[in-house]
Amino acid sequence: MRFYPILAVALAVTACSPSPDAGIASNSASTANAAAPVAANRSAPAVPVKAQPIRLSQKTDALEFDYRIPAAAAAIPDLANMLRDRAEKGKASILKERADYDKDMPADAPRYPFSFSTDWSVAADLPQLLVLESEGYQFTGGAHGMPIYQTLYWDKVQNHEIPLDALFTHRAKALATVHPAFCAQLDRQRAKKRNVAVADLKKDAGPVDDFTACPAFGDGIEVVFTHPVGGKFGRIDFIVPPYVAGPYAEGDYRVELPIPKAMIPYIAKRYRPSFPGTGG
Prior knowledge:
Layout: H1 32-43, E1 54-59, E2 63-69, H2 71-74, H3 77-104, E3 114-125, E4 129-139, E5 146-155, E6 160-162, H4 171-176, H5 179-194, H6 198-205, E7 222-226, E8 235-240, E9 253-258
Parallel strand pairs: 2-3
Antiparallel strand pairs: 1-2, 3-4, 4-5, 5-6, 7-8, 8-9
């Protein structure tokens, strides 16, 4: 996973708006034979136009900014506008931090550009839900920047964003069905990075150590339903950022698990058609 600023290019915004695909009827008199193609054109379905990804970027001495929106999101006007707005607000916030930083630093102190990047990608595109996940980076001074992860669930039927909690009747009980498997896989990944079994580390550090204990599912861990199969989610991924399950040097952890049958009763009725083992 990356831990360096994504270099942005000159300010550029790329988007594509669908153009109408309708036949043009003549106003002049025509024969019945000549009018037939016009009628056919009127009844023919519109040819869908694929939207293009959007990229907002800017590079100055003060800021390296890069924000990417995939085509699937760009094709939904309300979603694309929402992400554009978040991009502009994020950029404005970083620029304000940079201005405050410049005021506090001595005039002869070295200056490094602050960074703000977000790269959204499609985790799942189902008939009912579009799931986006992003990997980003933010640097506002200090020893190093921080990777930033986000997940977005968009209800394509109601055309609005929904929080993760909306997928469940009881979020804690739903996620509890995968927590043991999550902990087991996380420990295997930590052992591989550290060249020592986590169980051996716990003997010395104790279970209260954040870097040996298994973290609870909180705000720091992203929950991503993904890997669609047959119009339904196939797996559930957990993105664990630095400092949650290990030191910064270890980077992030990504745990991928199948969706257990035990979770389905805790899925909200409205969204059960998007999950395995259900009708719809």
